[in-house]
Amino acid sequence: MAALRHPQILLASDLADGEVLFLGANGWERDHRRARVARDAEEAGALAAFGKAEIAANRVVDVYLADVAVGADGVPTPLHYREKMRIKGPSVRLDLGKQARGAA
Amino acid sequence: MTAHDPALARPNAPTTTYRYDEYDAAFVKERVAEFREQVRRRLEGSLTEEEFRPFRLMNGLYLQLHAYMLRVAIPYGTLTARQMRRLADIADKFDRGYGHFTTRQNLQYNWPKLVDAPDILEALAEVEMHAIQTSGNCIRNVTADHFSGVAPDEIEDPRPTAEFLRQWSSAHPEFSFLPRKFKIAVTGAEHDRAAILAHDVGLAIVKNHEGEIGYRVVVGGGLGRSPFVGKTIRDYLPRADLLAYLEAIMRVYNRFGRRDNKYKARIKILVHEKGIDEVRDAVEAEFAAMDRSVFSYDPAEFERIAAFFAPPPYEAPPAESQKLRAERAAHPAFGDFVDVNVAPHKAPGYAIVTVSLKPIGGIPGDATSQQMRVLADASERFGFGELRISHEQNVILPHVKQDDLFDLWKTLDAAGLATANAGLVSDIISCPGLDYCSLATARSIPIAQAISKRFSDLSRQRRIGKLGIKISGCINACGHHHVGAIGILGLEKKGQESYQITLGGDPTFSASIGEIVGPGVTAEQAPDVIEHIIDFYLAERQEGETFIETWRRIGHARFKDVLRREGEDGADI
Amino acid sequence: MALISDGRFIEDGWRRLADEEALPKSGKVIVSLARLGHALEHFGPDAAIGAFVPNTTEPAALAQALPRLGLISIAFPAFADGRGFSLARLLRRAGFTGELRASGRLLADQYAHALGCGFDTIEIPDDLAARQDESQWRAARAAHARAYQRGYVAAGSILEARRKAAAK
What we know:
CATH class of the largest domain in chain B: Alpha Beta
Shape of chain A: globular
Number of helices of chain A: 2
Mean pLDDT of chain A: 95
CATH topology of the largest domain in chain B: Sulfite Reductase Hemoprotein, domain 1
Largest sheet of chain A: 6 strands, antiparallel
Distance between the termini of chain B: 59 Å
Oligomer: heterotrimer
Number of strands of chain A: 6
Strand content of chain A: 35-45%
């Protein structure tokens, strides 16, 4: 099995409402803590393929894999600061976005 | 009867801006229905995302970092109290209770849903507003001087021209699939407050030797990855030829603008690569070949539009208000506000008020729905129900009697809208940046907030004087950093946000693009570096010199040296 | 390929001739720009000739052929590439009165733009036609009762409507 440089999760945007989604064990999640982590290229490929099918099914747009670090609790944290923003919301309005709903 | 009288302000108030006729109203209504149908087809799959995207964009809807974003057009930055109230209502009903005023005089909502977008557009259409062509590879919102119609240095109000062009450019059959976006700005005064030299086409209203009104036409300005100052393609274009000439420019651009590379697709690249002379030849040849009689300018139509922008029924108070004088003396904070945020008006006894949307440490350009309603009410109480949005992300009340300034100030102050910093160093222009925007490479708002707090002391700001800091969160330069006296560009360097500082930008008729002053700095370092730059300016400036004047006189190298020396000392820059 | 004319899918009366195919003696045949000169010389009087041209074609290149062409088909390499709209306009201005066809992955939502610029017909791939039925094309064409622009083929411009109303 081909190795990944880093474990990965799959992100997308909900077509109807634009919110950031993460592919979980059983479909899309709005909380990154429930994202399924791919640890090798095959798993990552499977995530990406599911994402592609979901685009074709007109449920999501803008699907991509992002590198994460996985904590002892199994929770993935994105490595790049752009995705760190996406799991939370605007850093200048802590009352808005996922962070306001107790996510991350 | 004074402007305080509510009866004067309400339903029979004179219009001071364009009002839709049945055809304009039908057009936006049809557009809403068309978009509603496009959304339906997208959701059910007969349109793919790639196919839907240009039409989504041409109705102002972006997909951003956390959510969709809807950009509502505020044509030439002018809106009525009723329209401002509707913007507030939409913010409450469909969004999170606030909106962001932009550097192109528009308003952005950051949290709309695609499924709600048609209803939002319908709510806008009810008050003669829309989001048509605020994005996409088409002609965008035609912007204009935010002091239109009221500035003492005005030759002619540019807004009739802007409205004329708005209609001409709406759903244009030939020019809706351009190589890239196309931005037009119009100015009509001796000083350019619309940054026309930074636009794809800039129009300056001028008079010829016979005193006839016409336009100086500039093309190929633009910021972004490759900033350019626009070049004059025609020193004088008669008004009658405006539409035909613009058609010629658009046709040349549509045919010959590059389509192979998104970053080389603006008309500024065409002008840069071919040269202004070759572009001018092509435009003039096309202009000459047109059958102008077929679609040429109709002076009656222009006059019909211009009539909407006639001055409101000003009273005739004395040129200098004694009441104002007394109130200033009694209230120093109010005096500051008058000194900084109030500009002279062409009508005696009146004033132009800039309402700053840059409270110290606040988010530049944001307004809550509550604040929008306060502004709507204030415009009716104190100014014929008209407001402007400047490209500097502030709100203008353009028709305030000097006698009413104190009451207005108290009203604004109670709503957190009386920050006396218009044009000062804490009146920072900032794009939304990575806090909101999916194109961004770094955050911009926190930098603005930190600098604003560093310079919070008003007397210090007044000592510094007018100084424009402009911040962009990526190379697309929506914060107009290239034309900031001090510009800041947020980039990514080695996985961290890094800020590149430029000096010497100028958006006016003496336009120039800023020059990089040193290596990128971190967010923590940025306020210190800005402070060093400004301290150096203060040390070097001669009597009354603005920042840009000092910079031009002593040279960019001196500023570079100062920052480099600070770095070499190991000082914490 | 499917052909839209007046809001309906119709049979194509023209045939696109590949460059390596021999010129037939009669019929309505569309040839590439490269072959046009030869076709005009050798095609019999019973034949109708059309040209399939890139959207970067200079109108002057077709000037001589214009009176003899029954059709010009302008390629749209991508639906967002709007050069064909300007080319159509220029060809009409040059006096072309035959059928102007837009050929590519155009969307129903561009029907009004195409008609406005002088196109008569739109030719699209079958997979696209499957997703965009006639009702979508007709709805798109009817989306706006009037256009703001003058001098474009349209139901009528808003300016003309305003003048008429003012004259009353």
